[in-house]
Give the backbone structure.
Amino acid sequence: MDLSQLETFLAVVEERGFSRAASRLHRTQPAVSLAIRKLEDEIGEPLFERSSREGTLTASGELLRNYAERLLGLRREATSALEQLRSLERGRLHIAANEYTCLYLLPVLDEFRRLCPHVSVMVERALASRIPDQLMDRSVELGVVTFAPQDAAIEAVSVYTDSVVFVVNPRHPLAREKEVSIRQLGAESFIAHNVVSPLRRRVIALFEQHQTPLNMYVELPSLEAIKRFVAMGNGVALVPGLTVQQELARGELVQVAVPELKIERQLLLARRRQGSLSYAAQAFLKVLEAVAEERGAPFCYRPAGS
């Protein structure tokens, strides 16, 4: 049986007759009678009392009526739900980001929530190296990374340009300097992130290039912990500029320029190259593009590598 057969069946029940049901469905009475006979043949039971002209149901007909109403009700719910998805009255957006890249998302999500308040958003904390795999196994729809994924099945757009900054607490002797050389940092105690990353390897290589020791006496598990520890007067740190904007504005940390350590990083939004995006994800990409256009640098929206 199919839903159109059940629709015809319920029309006969509700209109209490084949001719009135035919008029309601804009069909001929023989066509309605044929549809009911086919339905009865499939079920193997009569649905209407043949002695009645008002569409009186048999016991089998009464049982089927209950299921038919539920099935057609589910179809209406499904149609309504799909329409709500298209109109962004519901839906779900699942994004992967790490502790650092999540900070980029906050102003974008603020705008997205204003425009699409009924869409549920889940930002999953993940190691950047794992995000391409999560995209490919479809556990997330979008991911924010700091490197161009090597997998040809993943495409990415640049969405933010950030710089690595050298920070100290306001009482540190270097806080009075506008600029220092990398050689001056050889005697400093660096508070480092304990996760090995491309950025960490790049910093180590720059210190080696300038024949300067890099003393990482304390390693902590999060950028938040690193910032707080330095603000307490313990050592110095190299951190993404995006992560210390508020601390610099409040005077809890001081940024000092190091010309030899000019490191810029592109934040990229990655997605699967093949396959369609949800309506929520499509709307989110439009918000990313609009934010980049309205705010300008460091926000951007362009193909990775361009």
Observations:
- Residues 59-86 form the longest helix (28 residues).
- The chain has a mean pLDDT of 90.
